[in-house]
């Protein structure tokens, strides 16, 4: 059993399984700018279709939302964000707005004229760890969108005892928990490692380290390239070299000619002397048997 991330319907539900269909005490708008299959927003939309709306960003002119500052707040941990229980006009609140986007793109949404006039609220006690199976590089205290929706609605219900307390907002995590348990189950097989499950903090930390090393490598490569160009410019100015070196031939990496005029065998077919850019063998990998000591 799963859900469709584009039509927001349960798929393949057994006859004896009841998929939750709930109403929420507040409207939830999720301003979305990411790949839909990576997001947890469709999980909530599938369970509470009447109250959760996914709004693509940038806003389309004919579909741009309009919010009243007294009736809507943005759930975002800005420096001036308040706790929802501290709002004096809590009784007038009707809509919670969540931002579902990479952290680098969030400021562009917050500064949009449709959003910028609204107040921000944040979770009073955000969990240090998330059960989400995607890692991030922002450290502890960051959770997925659907987890934030559920926790914020819980805080709203706790701050407003007269509201619809019969609503079990934890059912928003029905498909989230289903996917989580399925991933855990696959990692309990003998050929898998449970501590390498993507939602474990150890694996997330390992992924952060790999990402950090990759970014450092890119930065170092760029620095070396700029240093090389700076040295060439200095040599050219001092007269050490007569002119700026020609580009390397993509086929043999010599600087005396271009790839179209290369006299060496094609790097792809290794049979003819021709322009390697039009070689039919380009993009094809030779499946050779790797010889190891075990063989």
Automatic annotation (TrEMBL):
Segments of skewed composition (Basic and acidic residues): 201-215
GO-annotated biological processes: tRNA processing
Keyword Metal-binding recorded: yes
Compartments in which it is found: Nucleus
Residues in the signal sequence: none
Source species, domain of life: Eukaryota
InterPro entries: DTW, tRNA_Mod/Golgi_Maint, Znf_CCHC, Znf_CCHC_sf
EC category: transferase
A GO cellular-component term linked to this record: nucleus
Region described as Disordered: spans on this chain: 187-222
Keyword Zinc-finger found: yes
Pfam assignment, any one: DTW
Catalytic activity: a uridine in tRNA + S-adenosyl-L-methionine = a 3-[(3S)-3-amino-3-carboxypropyl]uridine in tRNA + S-methyl-5'-thioadenosine + H(+)
EC id: 2.5.1.25
Alphabetic keyword roster: Metal-binding, Nucleus, S-adenosyl-L-methionine, Transferase, tRNA processing, Zinc, Zinc-finger
Start and end residues of each CCHC-type domain: 248-264
GO MF terms held by the record: nucleic acid binding; tRNA-uridine aminocarboxypropyltransferase activity; zinc ion binding
Function: Catalyzes the formation of 3-(3-amino-3-carboxypropyl)uridine (acp3U) at position 20 in the D-loop of several cytoplasmic tRNAs (acp3U(20)).
Family: Belongs to the TDD superfamily. DTWD1 family.
Name this protein carries in UniProt: tRNA-uridine aminocarboxypropyltransferase 1
């Amino acid at each position: 059993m799963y859900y469709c991330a584009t039509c927001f319907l349960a798929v393949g539900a057994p006859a004896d399984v009841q998929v939750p269909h709930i109403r929420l005490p507040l409207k939830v708008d999720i301003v979305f700018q990411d790949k839909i299959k990576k997001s947890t927003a469709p999980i909530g939309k599938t369970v509470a279709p009447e109250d959760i709306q996914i709004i693509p960003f940038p806003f389309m002119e004919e579909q741009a939302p309009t919010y009243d500052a007294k009736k809507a707040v943005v759930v975002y941990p800005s420096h001036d964000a308040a706790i929802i229980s501290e709002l004096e006009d809590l009784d007038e609140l009707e809509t919670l707005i969540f931002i579902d986007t990479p952290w680098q793109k969030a400021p562009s949404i917050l500064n949009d004229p449709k959003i910028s006039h609204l107040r921000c609220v944040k979770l009073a006690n955000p969990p240090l760890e998330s059960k989400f199976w995607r890692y991030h590089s922002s450290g502890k205290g960051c959770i997925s969108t659907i987890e934030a929706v559920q926790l914020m609605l819980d805080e709203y219900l706790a701050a407003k005892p007269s509201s619809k307390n019969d609503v079990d907002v934890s059912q928003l995590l029905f498909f989230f928990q289903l996917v989580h348990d399925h991933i855990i189950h696959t990692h309990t097989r003998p050929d898998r490692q449970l501590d390498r499950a993507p939602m474990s903090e150890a694996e997330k930390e390992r992924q952060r380290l790999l990402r950090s090393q990759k970014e450092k490598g890119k930065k170092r490569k760029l620095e070396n390239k700029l240093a090389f160009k700076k040295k060439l410019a200095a040599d050219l100015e001092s007269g050490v070299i007569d002119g700026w070196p020609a580009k390397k031939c993509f086929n043999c990496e010599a600087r005396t000619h271009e790839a179209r005029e290369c006299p060496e065998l094609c790097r792809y077919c290794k049979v003819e002397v021709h322009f390697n850019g039009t070689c039919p063998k380009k993009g094809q990998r030779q499946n050779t048997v790797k010889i190891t000591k075990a063989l």
